[in-house]
Amino acid sequence: MTVTVLNAMLRPLLEPRLPDWVDVRWYADKDEAFALAPVAEIGWFDMHSKDDMAEVFRRAEKLKWLNSIYAGVESFPLDLLASRGVMLTNGAGINAVPIAEYVVMLMLVHSKGYREVVRAQERREWLKQSPGKRELYGSEVLILGYGAIGQEVEARLTGFGAKVTKVRRTPGPGALGPDQWRGELGRFDWIVLAVPATPETQHMIGAAELAAMKGDGVIVNIARGSVIDQDALVDALAAGRIGGALLDVTTPEPLPEDHPLWTLDNAQVTMHLSGNAQTLMFQRSAERFLVNLARYRNGEPLEPLVDCAAGY
After folding, report:
1. Which CATH class is domain 2-92+280-298?
2. Where along the chain do the CATH 3.40.50.720 domains lie?
3. Which of 23, 42, 119, 239 is the most exposed place for a label (fewest CB within 10 A)?
4. How would residue 95 be classed by pLDDT, with cut points 50, 70 and 90?
């Protein structure tokens, strides 16, 4: 029997379908998770607190496979997991569809000035002109981060007739290499950030990159707040040097009430909601976990497997 420790929230989705070789222990709170962690060979521990996450992993010395619903793993003690040889599977791609839909929504809201339409309705004012005249059709879009989310974003924007360029390790048709995109920033109407949070992506968009953008270029960030130098972004927006910023993520989160991003008309802040704009996250995660359980039993590779050294 393989001792497996799981969150009790998942019980209705998993219990009827768990194989008989799994000895499952359910936890309902962090104290129960702490108590059960030392016996776990397989664990699905997702905590809201980084300190609680560190504590449960410190105790889980028998752990061989750790699963998570989270796509970002910057809160995990990756060095510790790597030193113990623990396999980590994460939630990469689980929310790719709703996040991609959110990206298109943000771009359309900005293009059509839809925030002004909503405000006019609240004032009961009949507008004679659309506040926004931009079209996605024919616009140039750069996608930084071409994983599951980036691919879903490309599929939807292509349907709108946008011209999509992505960044890949190997350049080719419709793709720039990692050393090429900065020199091309000035030709894009939209820059979509979908990269993982790693030391290499920290402030990958800074003052120099913002200065290289088109004057009406818009940056869309559904990655992590850390990939943008937020102070430099505020300066660029306040001075009108770029067209706008559509931010589902910020630094820190929640964004303080007195932060200037709240007051800038050319910034939209959507409170890290893009991945929550659906009801299927737990069902999809449970299905993936069950598939991986069978792979684990058979000694087959688990997916998606995190490279703890790379950080994603």
Report:
1. alpha beta
2. 2-92+280-298, 96-276
3. 239
4. very high
